[in-house]
Design a protein that fits this description.
The complex is a heterodimer of chains A (about 190) and B (about 230). Chain A is mostly helical. In chain A, helix 7 runs antiparallel to helix 8. The termini of chain A are close together. Chain B has one domain. By secondary structure, chain B is mainly α. Classes of the chains: A mainly alpha (about 190), B mainly alpha (about 230).
Protein backbone atom coordinates (compact mmCIF):
# COMPACT_ATOMS: atom_id res chain seq x y z
CA UNK A 1 0.00 0.00 0.00
CA UNK A 2 2.71 2.44 1.04
CA UNK A 3 4.72 1.63 -2.06
CA UNK A 4 1.71 2.34 -4.29
CA UNK A 5 1.12 5.67 -2.54
CA UNK A 6 4.81 6.38 -2.93
CA UNK A 7 4.56 5.81 -6.70
CA UNK A 8 1.77 8.40 -6.96
CA UNK A 9 3.55 10.95 -4.78
CA UNK A 10 6.90 10.46 -6.49
CA UNK A 11 5.34 10.88 -9.92
CA UNK A 12 3.26 13.89 -8.92
CA UNK A 13 5.58 15.89 -6.68
CA UNK A 14 9.17 14.67 -6.50
CA UNK A 15 9.63 13.92 -10.20
CA UNK A 16 7.11 16.49 -11.36
CA UNK A 17 6.65 15.91 -15.05
CA UNK A 18 7.04 19.51 -16.21
CA UNK A 19 9.14 21.15 -13.53
CA UNK A 20 11.60 18.30 -13.12
CA UNK A 21 11.42 16.17 -16.27
CA UNK A 22 10.57 18.90 -18.80
CA UNK A 23 7.88 16.88 -20.54
CA UNK A 24 4.72 18.51 -21.88
CA UNK A 25 6.36 21.91 -21.76
CA UNK A 26 4.58 23.36 -24.77
CA UNK A 27 1.11 23.13 -23.37
CA UNK A 28 2.48 24.07 -19.95
CA UNK A 29 3.77 27.35 -21.39
CA UNK A 30 1.14 27.77 -24.10
CA UNK A 31 -2.16 26.98 -22.38
CA UNK A 32 -1.52 28.55 -18.97
CA UNK A 33 -3.03 31.99 -19.40
CA UNK A 34 -6.18 31.26 -17.38
CA UNK A 35 -6.73 28.88 -14.50
CA UNK A 36 -10.01 27.60 -15.94
CA UNK A 37 -8.61 26.48 -19.29
CA UNK A 38 -5.51 25.16 -17.54
CA UNK A 39 -7.68 23.04 -15.27
CA UNK A 40 -9.69 21.70 -18.24
CA UNK A 41 -6.50 20.76 -20.03
CA UNK A 42 -5.25 19.14 -16.82
CA UNK A 43 -8.46 17.10 -16.66
CA UNK A 44 -8.00 15.92 -20.23
CA UNK A 45 -4.36 15.04 -19.56
CA UNK A 46 -5.21 13.03 -16.43
CA UNK A 47 -7.84 11.16 -18.44
CA UNK A 48 -5.60 10.34 -21.39
CA UNK A 49 -2.35 9.59 -19.54
CA UNK A 50 -4.04 7.26 -17.03
CA UNK A 51 -5.69 5.24 -19.80
CA UNK A 52 -2.64 5.35 -22.06
CA UNK A 53 -0.33 4.04 -19.30
CA UNK A 54 -2.66 1.10 -18.70
CA UNK A 55 -3.04 0.26 -22.38
CA UNK A 56 0.68 0.66 -23.09
CA UNK A 57 1.49 -1.62 -20.17
CA UNK A 58 -0.93 -4.34 -21.36
CA UNK A 59 0.47 -4.14 -24.89
CA UNK A 60 4.04 -4.34 -23.68
CA UNK A 61 3.42 -7.25 -21.27
CA UNK A 62 1.21 -9.36 -23.49
CA UNK A 63 2.30 -8.53 -27.04
CA UNK A 64 5.68 -6.87 -27.41
CA UNK A 65 7.60 -8.59 -24.63
CA UNK A 66 6.52 -12.22 -25.36
CA UNK A 67 7.25 -11.75 -29.08
CA UNK A 68 10.66 -10.23 -28.37
CA UNK A 69 9.67 -7.00 -30.07
CA UNK A 70 10.70 -4.68 -27.23
CA UNK A 71 12.57 -2.44 -29.62
CA UNK A 72 9.33 -1.54 -31.38
CA UNK A 73 7.96 0.07 -28.22
CA UNK A 74 8.41 3.68 -29.33
CA UNK A 75 6.61 3.15 -32.64
CA UNK A 76 3.82 1.08 -31.10
CA UNK A 77 3.29 3.41 -28.16
CA UNK A 78 3.05 6.58 -30.23
CA UNK A 79 0.55 4.98 -32.61
CA UNK A 80 -1.49 3.56 -29.74
CA UNK A 81 -1.55 6.95 -28.04
CA UNK A 82 -2.67 8.69 -31.23
CA UNK A 83 -5.38 6.12 -31.82
CA UNK A 84 -6.41 6.15 -28.18
CA UNK A 85 -6.91 9.90 -28.15
CA UNK A 86 -9.15 9.58 -31.20
CA UNK A 87 -11.18 6.79 -29.57
CA UNK A 88 -11.47 8.69 -26.30
CA UNK A 89 -12.64 11.74 -28.18
CA UNK A 90 -15.30 9.83 -30.14
CA UNK A 91 -16.42 7.99 -27.01
CA UNK A 92 -16.77 11.19 -24.99
CA UNK A 93 -18.61 12.92 -27.82
CA UNK A 94 -21.19 10.14 -27.81
CA UNK A 95 -21.51 9.32 -24.13
CA UNK A 96 -20.53 12.45 -22.23
CA UNK A 97 -21.15 15.48 -24.44
CA UNK A 98 -20.76 17.91 -21.54
CA UNK A 99 -17.30 16.59 -20.67
CA UNK A 100 -16.39 16.48 -24.36
CA UNK A 101 -17.34 20.11 -24.71
CA UNK A 102 -15.23 21.04 -21.70
CA UNK A 103 -12.14 19.12 -22.87
CA UNK A 104 -12.93 19.69 -26.55
CA UNK A 105 -10.00 21.21 -28.35
CA UNK A 106 -7.45 19.97 -25.83
CA UNK A 107 -7.88 16.27 -26.58
CA UNK A 108 -6.20 16.22 -30.02
CA UNK A 109 -3.45 18.47 -28.65
CA UNK A 110 -2.50 15.74 -26.21
CA UNK A 111 -1.66 13.18 -28.91
CA UNK A 112 1.82 14.45 -29.45
CA UNK A 113 2.32 15.80 -25.96
CA UNK A 114 5.58 14.15 -25.02
CA UNK A 115 4.43 13.56 -21.44
CA UNK A 116 2.13 10.73 -22.57
CA UNK A 117 4.84 8.88 -24.48
CA UNK A 118 7.33 9.74 -21.72
CA UNK A 119 5.20 8.11 -19.00
CA UNK A 120 4.58 5.01 -21.09
CA UNK A 121 8.31 4.58 -21.73
CA UNK A 122 9.31 5.33 -18.13
CA UNK A 123 6.84 2.70 -16.88
CA UNK A 124 8.59 0.10 -19.04
CA UNK A 125 12.02 1.23 -17.82
CA UNK A 126 10.85 0.96 -14.19
CA UNK A 127 9.27 -2.44 -15.03
CA UNK A 128 6.00 -1.42 -13.40
CA UNK A 129 3.06 -3.83 -13.39
CA UNK A 130 -0.41 -2.93 -14.64
CA UNK A 131 -1.71 -1.19 -11.52
CA UNK A 132 1.60 0.48 -10.81
CA UNK A 133 1.63 1.84 -14.38
CA UNK A 134 -1.87 3.25 -14.03
CA UNK A 135 -0.98 4.84 -10.68
CA UNK A 136 2.24 6.29 -12.05
CA UNK A 137 0.32 7.65 -15.03
CA UNK A 138 -2.32 9.17 -12.80
CA UNK A 139 0.28 10.64 -10.45
CA UNK A 140 2.26 12.15 -13.32
CA UNK A 141 -0.84 13.72 -14.84
CA UNK A 142 -1.98 15.01 -11.45
CA UNK A 143 1.44 16.63 -11.01
CA UNK A 144 1.11 18.18 -14.46
CA UNK A 145 -2.34 19.56 -13.59
CA UNK A 146 -1.10 20.95 -10.29
CA UNK A 147 1.82 22.68 -11.97
CA UNK A 148 -0.14 24.18 -14.88
CA UNK A 149 -2.99 25.43 -12.63
CA UNK A 150 -0.48 27.04 -10.25
CA UNK A 151 1.37 28.66 -13.15
CA UNK A 152 -1.90 29.94 -14.62
CA UNK A 153 -2.82 31.40 -11.24
CA UNK A 154 0.40 33.38 -11.14
CA UNK A 155 0.18 34.38 -14.80
CA UNK A 156 -3.32 35.81 -14.37
CA UNK A 157 -1.80 38.35 -12.01
CA UNK A 158 1.47 38.92 -13.82
CA UNK A 159 0.85 38.80 -17.59
CA UNK A 160 -0.50 42.31 -18.13
CA UNK A 161 1.82 43.99 -15.68
CA UNK A 162 3.27 47.07 -17.38
CA UNK A 163 6.25 47.16 -15.03
CA UNK A 164 7.88 44.10 -16.58
CA UNK A 165 10.75 45.22 -18.83
CA UNK A 166 9.89 44.81 -22.52
CA UNK A 167 12.55 42.20 -23.15
CA UNK A 168 11.13 40.06 -20.34
CA UNK A 169 7.50 40.22 -21.47
CA UNK A 170 5.99 37.09 -22.94
CA UNK A 171 7.97 33.86 -22.75
CA UNK A 172 10.86 35.01 -20.48
CA UNK A 173 8.71 36.09 -17.53
CA UNK A 174 6.73 32.85 -17.76
CA UNK A 175 9.98 30.87 -17.74
CA UNK A 176 11.17 32.84 -14.71
CA UNK A 177 7.94 32.02 -12.86
CA UNK A 178 8.43 28.38 -13.83
CA UNK A 179 12.01 28.54 -12.52
CA UNK A 180 10.79 29.77 -9.12
CA UNK A 181 8.13 27.03 -9.10
CA UNK A 182 10.78 24.46 -9.94
CA UNK A 183 12.87 25.66 -6.99
CA UNK A 184 9.84 25.33 -4.73
CA UNK A 185 9.07 21.85 -6.08
CA UNK A 186 12.66 20.72 -5.57
CA UNK A 187 11.85 20.91 -1.85
CA UNK A 188 9.73 17.78 -2.33
CA UNK A 189 12.89 15.83 -3.11
CA UNK A 190 13.39 15.31 0.63
CA UNK A 191 9.87 14.00 1.08
CA UNK A 192 9.76 10.68 2.89
CA UNK A 193 6.56 8.68 2.86
CA UNK B 1 24.22 32.02 -52.78
CA UNK B 2 22.88 28.77 -54.17
CA UNK B 3 19.73 27.21 -52.86
CA UNK B 4 21.50 24.42 -50.94
CA UNK B 5 23.72 26.63 -48.81
CA UNK B 6 20.72 28.92 -48.41
CA UNK B 7 18.86 26.04 -46.65
CA UNK B 8 21.74 25.60 -44.20
CA UNK B 9 21.98 29.32 -43.51
CA UNK B 10 18.21 29.37 -43.02
CA UNK B 11 18.35 26.57 -40.43
CA UNK B 12 21.31 27.88 -38.50
CA UNK B 13 20.50 31.59 -38.51
CA UNK B 14 17.30 32.88 -40.13
CA UNK B 15 14.92 30.25 -38.73
CA UNK B 16 17.05 28.79 -35.95
CA UNK B 17 14.71 26.20 -34.38
CA UNK B 18 15.65 27.02 -30.78
CA UNK B 19 16.38 30.73 -30.66
CA UNK B 20 14.00 32.03 -33.34
CA UNK B 21 11.25 29.44 -33.76
CA UNK B 22 11.36 28.12 -30.18
CA UNK B 23 10.60 24.57 -31.21
CA UNK B 24 11.58 21.38 -29.45
CA UNK B 25 11.83 22.92 -26.02
CA UNK B 26 11.57 19.67 -24.02
CA UNK B 27 15.00 18.30 -25.03
CA UNK B 28 16.45 21.81 -24.96
CA UNK B 29 15.61 22.08 -21.27
CA UNK B 30 16.30 18.54 -20.28
CA UNK B 31 19.62 17.55 -21.82
CA UNK B 32 21.61 20.80 -21.70
CA UNK B 33 23.15 20.06 -18.31
CA UNK B 34 26.50 19.81 -20.10
CA UNK B 35 27.91 20.79 -23.48
CA UNK B 36 28.57 17.16 -24.44
CA UNK B 37 25.00 16.09 -23.69
CA UNK B 38 23.61 19.03 -25.65
CA UNK B 39 25.90 18.23 -28.58
CA UNK B 40 24.96 14.53 -28.49
CA UNK B 41 21.25 15.30 -28.45
CA UNK B 42 21.70 17.83 -31.25
CA UNK B 43 23.56 15.39 -33.48
CA UNK B 44 21.06 12.58 -32.82
CA UNK B 45 18.24 14.91 -33.80
CA UNK B 46 20.22 16.10 -36.84
CA UNK B 47 20.62 12.54 -38.13
CA UNK B 48 16.93 11.74 -37.65
CA UNK B 49 15.91 15.05 -39.19
CA UNK B 50 18.03 14.63 -42.33
CA UNK B 51 16.86 11.06 -42.91
CA UNK B 52 13.21 11.78 -42.14
CA UNK B 53 13.19 14.83 -44.44
CA UNK B 54 14.76 12.73 -47.20
CA UNK B 55 12.38 9.75 -46.80
CA UNK B 56 9.28 11.88 -46.46
CA UNK B 57 10.25 13.92 -49.49
CA UNK B 58 10.75 10.69 -51.47
CA UNK B 59 7.28 9.38 -50.69
CA UNK B 60 5.52 12.75 -50.55
CA UNK B 61 3.49 12.08 -53.71
CA UNK B 62 2.44 8.59 -52.65
CA UNK B 63 1.06 9.45 -49.21
CA UNK B 64 -2.63 10.42 -49.27
CA UNK B 65 -3.23 13.77 -47.66
CA UNK B 66 -5.58 12.50 -44.94
CA UNK B 67 -3.13 10.02 -43.42
CA UNK B 68 0.06 12.00 -43.87
CA UNK B 69 0.63 12.86 -40.20
CA UNK B 70 0.37 9.23 -38.98
CA UNK B 71 2.58 8.20 -41.91
CA UNK B 72 5.21 10.81 -40.96
CA UNK B 73 5.06 9.69 -37.34
CA UNK B 74 5.72 6.05 -38.31
CA UNK B 75 8.69 7.06 -40.48
CA UNK B 76 10.15 9.29 -37.75
CA UNK B 77 9.55 6.69 -35.02
CA UNK B 78 11.32 4.00 -37.05
CA UNK B 79 14.33 6.26 -37.64
CA UNK B 80 14.46 7.24 -33.98
CA UNK B 81 14.44 3.58 -32.94
CA UNK B 82 17.37 2.89 -35.28
CA UNK B 83 19.31 5.87 -33.92
CA UNK B 84 18.51 4.84 -30.35
CA UNK B 85 19.82 1.30 -30.90
CA UNK B 86 22.98 2.66 -32.56
CA UNK B 87 23.67 5.04 -29.66
CA UNK B 88 23.02 2.26 -27.15
CA UNK B 89 25.50 0.03 -28.95
CA UNK B 90 28.30 2.45 -29.75
CA UNK B 91 28.05 5.44 -27.36
CA UNK B 92 26.74 3.90 -24.12
CA UNK B 93 27.67 6.87 -21.90
CA UNK B 94 25.54 9.17 -24.07
CA UNK B 95 22.72 6.63 -23.96
CA UNK B 96 22.80 6.71 -20.15
CA UNK B 97 22.98 10.51 -20.05
CA UNK B 98 20.15 11.18 -22.50
CA UNK B 99 17.98 8.27 -21.39
CA UNK B 100 14.31 8.68 -22.19
CA UNK B 101 14.91 11.80 -24.27
CA UNK B 102 16.29 9.73 -27.16
CA UNK B 103 13.00 7.92 -27.89
CA UNK B 104 11.22 11.21 -27.25
CA UNK B 105 12.90 12.66 -30.37
CA UNK B 106 9.81 11.17 -32.06
CA UNK B 107 7.62 13.89 -30.62
CA UNK B 108 10.16 16.67 -31.16
CA UNK B 109 8.11 19.08 -33.18
CA UNK B 110 11.09 20.33 -35.18
CA UNK B 111 11.00 17.03 -37.03
CA UNK B 112 7.27 16.84 -37.71
CA UNK B 113 7.28 20.57 -38.32
CA UNK B 114 9.94 20.34 -41.07
CA UNK B 115 8.21 17.28 -42.55
CA UNK B 116 4.98 19.20 -42.82
CA UNK B 117 6.37 22.60 -43.73
CA UNK B 118 9.23 21.63 -46.03
CA UNK B 119 9.85 17.98 -46.93
CA UNK B 120 6.26 17.36 -48.01
CA UNK B 121 6.53 20.10 -50.64
CA UNK B 122 10.15 19.97 -51.86
CA UNK B 123 12.48 17.55 -53.70
CA UNK B 124 14.61 15.05 -51.72
CA UNK B 125 18.07 16.63 -52.00
CA UNK B 126 16.85 20.08 -50.98
CA UNK B 127 14.97 18.48 -48.09
CA UNK B 128 18.16 16.77 -46.90
CA UNK B 129 19.90 20.15 -46.84
CA UNK B 130 16.95 21.67 -45.02
CA UNK B 131 17.23 18.92 -42.39
CA UNK B 132 20.98 19.45 -42.21
CA UNK B 133 20.56 23.20 -41.68
CA UNK B 134 17.85 22.84 -39.04
CA UNK B 135 19.80 20.06 -37.33
CA UNK B 136 22.96 22.16 -37.27
CA UNK B 137 21.03 25.11 -35.87
CA UNK B 138 19.55 22.88 -33.17
CA UNK B 139 22.94 21.28 -32.36
CA UNK B 140 24.60 24.69 -32.15
CA UNK B 141 21.90 26.03 -29.85
CA UNK B 142 21.92 22.99 -27.53
CA UNK B 143 25.72 22.95 -27.35
CA UNK B 144 25.82 26.67 -26.54
CA UNK B 145 23.17 26.45 -23.83
CA UNK B 146 24.83 23.29 -22.48
CA UNK B 147 28.20 25.06 -22.44
CA UNK B 148 26.83 28.05 -20.52
CA UNK B 149 25.07 25.84 -17.99
CA UNK B 150 28.13 23.61 -17.58
CA UNK B 151 30.47 26.60 -17.14
CA UNK B 152 28.30 28.24 -14.49
CA UNK B 153 27.01 25.09 -12.85
CA UNK B 154 30.06 22.83 -12.77
CA UNK B 155 32.94 25.13 -13.76
CA UNK B 156 33.88 22.88 -16.67
CA UNK B 157 33.61 22.96 -20.48
CA UNK B 158 33.18 19.68 -22.38
CA UNK B 159 34.29 17.97 -19.16
CA UNK B 160 37.53 19.95 -18.74
CA UNK B 161 38.06 22.21 -15.75
CA UNK B 162 38.26 25.78 -17.10
CA UNK B 163 37.04 27.99 -14.29
CA UNK B 164 39.76 29.06 -11.78
CA UNK B 165 39.99 27.08 -8.57
CA UNK B 166 38.36 29.73 -6.37
CA UNK B 167 35.19 29.68 -8.51
CA UNK B 168 32.31 28.20 -6.56
CA UNK B 169 30.01 26.45 -9.09
CA UNK B 170 26.35 27.54 -8.96
CA UNK B 171 24.84 24.09 -8.56
CA UNK B 172 21.27 25.14 -9.29
CA UNK B 173 22.14 26.06 -12.89
CA UNK B 174 22.61 22.41 -13.87
CA UNK B 175 19.50 21.37 -11.92
CA UNK B 176 15.95 21.70 -13.20
CA UNK B 177 15.24 25.32 -12.13
CA UNK B 178 18.45 26.45 -13.84
CA UNK B 179 17.12 25.30 -17.20
CA UNK B 180 14.11 27.60 -16.93
CA UNK B 181 16.29 30.42 -15.60
CA UNK B 182 18.91 30.25 -18.37
CA UNK B 183 16.31 29.93 -21.13
CA UNK B 184 14.41 32.92 -19.72
CA UNK B 185 17.59 35.00 -19.80
CA UNK B 186 18.56 33.82 -23.29
CA UNK B 187 15.14 34.69 -24.74
CA UNK B 188 15.06 38.02 -22.91
CA UNK B 189 18.47 38.77 -24.39
CA UNK B 190 17.23 37.87 -27.88
CA UNK B 191 14.16 40.02 -27.33
CA UNK B 192 16.20 43.02 -26.27
CA UNK B 193 18.40 42.62 -29.35
CA UNK B 194 15.27 42.48 -31.49
CA UNK B 195 13.79 45.56 -29.81
CA UNK B 196 16.97 47.53 -30.41
CA UNK B 197 17.36 46.59 -34.07
CA UNK B 198 13.74 46.83 -35.16
CA UNK B 199 12.41 49.20 -32.51
CA UNK B 200 9.39 46.93 -32.39
CA UNK B 201 6.90 47.66 -29.65
CA UNK B 202 5.44 44.20 -29.68
CA UNK B 203 7.77 41.37 -28.82
CA UNK B 204 6.97 38.32 -30.87
CA UNK B 205 7.08 35.07 -29.01
CA UNK B 206 5.27 31.82 -29.37
CA UNK B 207 5.65 30.49 -25.83
CA UNK B 208 7.68 27.58 -27.12
CA UNK B 209 4.50 25.93 -28.23
CA UNK B 210 4.38 24.33 -31.63
CA UNK B 211 0.63 24.61 -31.86
CA UNK B 212 0.73 28.36 -31.51
CA UNK B 213 3.75 28.57 -33.82
CA UNK B 214 2.00 26.49 -36.45
CA UNK B 215 -1.04 28.71 -36.25
CA UNK B 216 0.99 31.86 -36.43
CA UNK B 217 2.75 30.53 -39.50
CA UNK B 218 -0.56 29.96 -41.21
CA UNK B 219 -0.37 26.25 -41.68
CA UNK B 220 -3.04 24.04 -43.19
CA UNK B 221 -6.21 23.65 -41.20
CA UNK B 222 -5.59 19.98 -40.50
CA UNK B 223 -2.30 20.75 -38.84
CA UNK B 224 -3.98 23.37 -36.69
CA UNK B 225 -6.41 20.73 -35.58
CA UNK B 226 -3.77 18.11 -34.91
CA UNK B 227 -1.57 20.63 -33.15
CA UNK B 228 1.92 19.37 -33.74
CA UNK B 229 3.26 19.66 -30.23
CA UNK B 230 6.59 19.11 -28.56
Amino acid sequence: MTSLLMIVLTAALINNVVLNQFLGLCSFLGVSRQTETAASLGGAVIFVITIASGVANLLYTFVLSPLGLDYLQTIVFILVIAALVQVVEMFLKKSAPALHKALGIYLPLITTNCAVLGVALTNVTNSYGFFESILAGFGTAAGYTLAIVLLAGVRERVDDNENIPKAFQGAPIVLLIAALMAIAFSGFANLNV
Amino acid sequence: MNKYTERIRNGVITENPTFIMMLGMCPTFAVTTSAVNGFGMGVSTLVVLMLSNWLISLVRKQIPDQVRLPAYIVIVASLVTVVQLLIQAYIPFLYDALGIYIPLIVVNCIILGRAEAYASKNPPVLSIFDGLGMGLGFTLALTLIGLVRELLGSGTAFGFQVMPGFYQPIGIIVKAPGAFLILALVIAFMNSAKIQTKANDKVEGCDGCCATCAQAKGCTSSEKKEGVNV
